[in-house]
Amino acid sequence: MCAAKRRNPPDAGGSRRPGRPARLSTETVTKAALAYVREHHLNDLTMRELGRLVDATPMALYRHIGSKQDLARELTDIVLGSITIPEDDVEAVAWLRELAVETRQALLQYPGTADLLLDEGPSVLNALRLLDRVIRRFQAEGMSVQQATELHNTFFSWLAGFVRREVVWQRSSDGARGAMKLFRARASALPAEEFPGLAAAMPFLRARDQETEFQASLTFMLEAVAARLSAVRSARPSKRARKRTKSSGN
């Protein structure tokens, strides 16, 4: 079964109507902040700018949202809450692929939210929900709690890091190609006889469009997950063997 379409955070792209300012509330502030982050970046959001958007002083904002870091966590939590988790009847590796695609889309829509997850880990409620679901999903496939936890930590650290790099490239005037120029210039200048591995790899170390790069990296990660699952299943005794062991013990 395919997952339902991901839900957008409520009114994240909306704008306040002209005229008399709406009464200030936590909901009003978070909606305005989400709209700003979607168009800019979480790190660019200041209390002064947010106050301008909702026609309030920074001091008034603090009464509704606490600190700027509290607001950043709240916004990230809302973004993660918009992700639709695949149904459990989807095969495990395909399930993780769907979840990765959904998560990437959500984090890319709101630049900077991936940074908070990398800095703090799954510190908000909906990140913890995702952690719980991943662990339970792969426990059901035979992994131990430790194995499933390590899978979550490794996989989602890669994913958040990938998104953060994508955001940096999107905000750069020349994107990925510009980011690779310095690397290629330095790598190409090195003598091939001293760096034969690097010289052989140079044709493959080129900037690709972000979607191609993401799909290639995701497939690489999922192949590792599939290999780990195969090893777990191979190490698990068959039903016949378990029955034979039980019978011999009686």
Report on the structure:
With 250 residues, the chain is an all-alpha fold. It folds into two domains: 7-66, Arc Repressor Mutant, subunit A (Orthogonal Bundle); 86-233, Tetracycline Repressor, domain 2 (Orthogonal Bundle), CATH 1.10.357. The chain is built from twelve helices and no strands. The chain has helices at 26-39, 47-54, 58-65, 68-81, 92-109, 113-120, 125-139, 145-171, 175-189, 196-201, 210-235, 239-249. Helix 8 crosses helix 9 (175-189). The longest helix has 27 residues, at 145-171. Residues 13-21 have low confidence and may be disordered.
Outline of the structure:
Helix content is 68%, strand content 0%. The chain is mainly α and 250 residues long.
List keywords for this structure.
single chain, mainly alpha, Tetracycline Repressor, domain 2, 2 domains, 0% strand, Arc Repressor Mutant, subunit A, 250 residues, 68% helix
Q: What is the number of independent domains? A: 2
Oligomer: single chain
Helical proportion, percent range? 55-70%
What is the gyration radius calculated from CA atoms? Answer: 23 Å
Name the helix and strand elements from N-terminus to C-terminus, one letter apiece: HHHHHHHHHHHH
C-alpha geometry: flat
Q: Tell me the major beta sheet.
A: none
Q: What name does CATH use for the topology of the largest domain?
A: Tetracycline Repressor, domain 2
Distance between the termini: 43 Å
Low-confidence region ranges: 13-21
Total strands: the figure is 0
Number of helices: 12
